[in-house]
Amino acid sequence: MTADAAPQLSIWAVSDGRAGMRDQALGLAEAVARLRPSAITVKTIAWRAGVGRLPTALNFAPRLTLNPASAIAPPWPQLWIAAGRATLALSSRMRRWSSGRTFVVQTQDPRMDAEAFDLVIPPTHDGLTGANVFPILGAPHRVTAARLAADVARFWPAIEPLPHPRIAMLVGGASKAHDLSSSRAWTLAGDLERCVQETAGSLMLTFSRRTPARARALITERLAPLPGIIWDETGDNPFFAFLGAADAILVTEDSVGMAVQAAATGKPVMIVPMDGGSERFRRFHDDLAACGAARPFAGRLETWSYPPLTETDRAAAEVVRRLEARS
Fold first, then answer.
1. Burial class (CB in 10 A: 0-12, 13-18, 19+), 276
2. What does residue 212 show for φ and ψ, rounded to 5 degrees?
3. pLDDT, tens digit, for every residue of 74-94?
4. Where along the chain do the CATH 3.40.50.2000 domains lie?
């Protein structure tokens, strides 16, 4: 059946609303919609006080313990795409609730029996395997050439005067495996300062909500005099515009999501060291390096080329293939 002839597919993209989780579910839903006519509904869930912290197995009546504004109720979609631990109590029951009519997709490693879902899409560096498991490099996201071009156009008056090379710097922060101490932040700022000055280029920098306040202040203080833009979280987020306009992209090593979005551009991606680390993240960075997308940042800009990563589209094609095989 061709995409034009296929009936419209109803899709729910479900998460707890955090940007990283929302963009995984919505990005995969949008990629499916590029293959099949679809109506996407974004669902943001919230639990009544304390329930969200319970292990999934102990949330015995998830529809009763949801905040009513979550609006998880029939009629059920044909395709349920969910991301994040907060969705597991719902995702693992959706096939039963829908009498098997809803195809259930969970991104990331759910850390429970994958047979509770129709398809699990984890990152390759987690090592999860199984008949209904389809690993991809990193995680689904919303980066497409069209979205980048549209956002560059929106922010063009601010970006157009910036001299080349334009260096996008995506700064993360504290997590289970990493941290950004004041000393590390100051070193990072110094390395960026030298790169911009030596290349006579410019800087486009965004922080994560996880960036420690002191690190943010130190980086901003040192880099504010340089040609460029440091987003201060007022107005629209220029994240996609920075990716689209950059000649090179630097990403702190704590974020899988930002790195794979950067690698979807086909531009040089350099991984910036932080405090801490883990074997899991080392495997991820090795995977990025193996496909030619990323290299460690050693204090200077490098240039190279590679085919942009299209893992979200590859995952979407697998979802559609399995949906059509079942129908």
1. middle
2. -60, 145
3. 999 999 999 999 999 999 999
4. 9-137+311-326, 145-296
